[in-house]
Design brief:
The protein is an alpha+beta fold. The protein has two domains: 187 residues, no CATH class; 36 residues. The protein has seven helices and eight strands. Strand 2 and strand 3 form a beta hairpin. Helix 4 runs antiparallel to helix 5. The longest helix has 18 residues. 24% of the residues are buried.
Length: 256
């Protein structure tokens, strides 16, 4: 994982466990709210917050062994109990888990999969594709959490397929097809992700270790890091291309 630079001139907003503040929401398809809450109730690290009308995931008991940027044992006693996630039910068919960092989202997916069981499936993800300055939290973190619902762009994979078909339309020879394909790919490379991005996952292709989800979110973390550093011309496609080249060159890193 990349190490964020904490510039004293522009302090980076981080969670109490040390990761860059970057809200993520995981959406689970559920058979019913009761099935989901029954699974959550088996955990001591889950508690019901009647005031906020949600279930909170606490950094205790079963979750205490998880390690973020700072391990639980390294945190001062005064910061506990730490809420590392919040479950809500936006409608009868979905359960949403909201966390405040990419590492928490990745660990949550891996942690809850065996507990929730095969009938509760992680199907969508929403993320804010940037990091925040400390000064942006002066009105409270809850206000920043709400940005997950502001100007959301819902990504439909079929749109990308349709765009490729349109780009290839009218080509006849192999040379024309290749030229159209690479021209289209360059257009795709230049187009960046939206600020608040909502897109479907492919649960039937996911690994038990959630490798696809991990890569998907870490690519966005690297992009956020680059933009934080002032490299705002770098797109997500640029990041992916660079990581692929590094991997082919024997550098198995995702460190920006």
């Amino acid at each position: 994982m990349i190490k964020p630079i904490h510039d004293a001139r522009t302090p980076l907003l981080v969670t109490v466990t040390g990761e860059p503040f970057q809200p993520v929401r995981l959406y689970y398809a559920v058979p019913s709210r009761r099935v989901a809450t029954k699974a959550l109730e088996t955990l001591r690290c889950i508690d019901k917050d009647e005031r906020a009308k949600c279930w909170v995931w606490l950094y205790v008991d079963e979750a205490a062994s998880l390690t973020f940027e700072r391990a639980r044992k390294d945190l001062p006693a005064g910061v506990h109990p730490i809420v590392i996630g919040r479950f809500r039910f936006p409608d009868k068919n979905f359960m949403a888990l909201e966390v405040r960092s990419v590492p928490r989202a990745i660990e949550a997916a891996k942690f809850f999969a065996p507990i929730l069981g095969p009938s509760i499936v992680l199907t969508r993800l929403r993320v804010i594709n940037r990091w925040f300055k400390v000064e942006e939290a002066t009105a409270g973190l809850d206000r920043l959490d709400k940005l997950l619902d502001a100007n959301v762009v819902r990504v439909n994979p079929k749109d990308a397929e349709d765009a490729l078909v349109q780009a290839m339309a009218g080509t006849r020879t192999q040379e024309e097809k290749l030229a159209a394909f690479w021209a289209h790919m360059e257009t795709v490379r230049r187009k960046d992700v939206p600020l608040v991005e909502d897109f479907p996952l492919i649960p039937e292709e996911e690994t038990p270790e959630f490798q696809d989800l991990t890569l998907t979110l870490r690519f966005r973390t690297i992009r956020a890091f680059e933009h934080w550093q002032g490299n705002t011309g770098i797109t997500l496609a640029d990041v992916i291309q660079r990581v692929v080249k590094q991997t082919k060159g024997g550098e198995q890193r995702l460190d920006g």
